[in-house]
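#structure-requests
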Amino acid sequence: MPRLLVLVRHGQSEWNLKNLFTGWKDPDLTQNGVAEAHAAGRLLEARGFRFDCAFTSNLIRAQNTLKLILAELDQVNLPTVRDEALNERDYGDLCGLNKDDARFKWGAEQVHLWRRSYDVRPPGGESLKDTVARVLPFYCQAILPAVLQEQAVLVSAHGNSLRALVMVLDHLTPATIPGLEIATGAALVYRLKPDSTVESKEILKP
């Protein structure tokens, strides 16, 4: 499976369920999130995918999603790199707050800017631009070389760390990135050309 890159957003977390800003906080998966991870693994298994290596963040919800996917693929011993560069965007002072309460306090428009804009930081946190600045070097130094060596690579990460990668892969702009949503448990299947650009893309959803 030459130059295969699969990006998977972790399954629903306990704080996703509670509608809380999560960021670098470390809640685990809900039962539904576990089911989403298993379903993603079964979708990849049904397509006959086998991986040479995997990457994930330092957060348990992404790590456990990866474990459950690899169990479905019968690849539990797959070489895996964990790195905080793939962590979710840091929401700073918003972490742990209910999103509806935040909208009531600061207004829906301001909260939407914090959540979906490219370069507006929440108080004490990261913008998506900041997230790109830490995710992209790791991608170029660690993930992309493996893909270009014709390995099949699996990445289990987070909504915004994956949005940062998709922005680069799909040539999205600061104007178009706010419209990008990645569902929990969704798998984005890329095949890259030898020059590292995208040859094809497919989205698999449980």
